[in-house]
Amino acid sequence: xxxxxxxGGPDFEVVYPHGDRAAYVTAVYQVEIxxxxxxxxxxxxxxxxxxxxxxxxxxxxSRFARAVLRATGHLDGTAG
Length: 80
What we know:
alpha+beta, two-stranded antiparallel sheet, 4 strands, 21% strand
């Protein structure tokens, strides 16, 4: 539906277990879900689902995902 934000910086840097480092620039879009069920690919994504804002705060998510959610207003800055 629209571009919400383009994000980058220290919160979007990742060090992988084998030592590789990457810095991501992430474009975040607002979309409308019209149908379907999210499915993990079984390789890079182990689980997928739809969550409302109150559920998001309770999920064990990565620093990267937490930074995206905070920057786009989907998670407050105090959530752990």
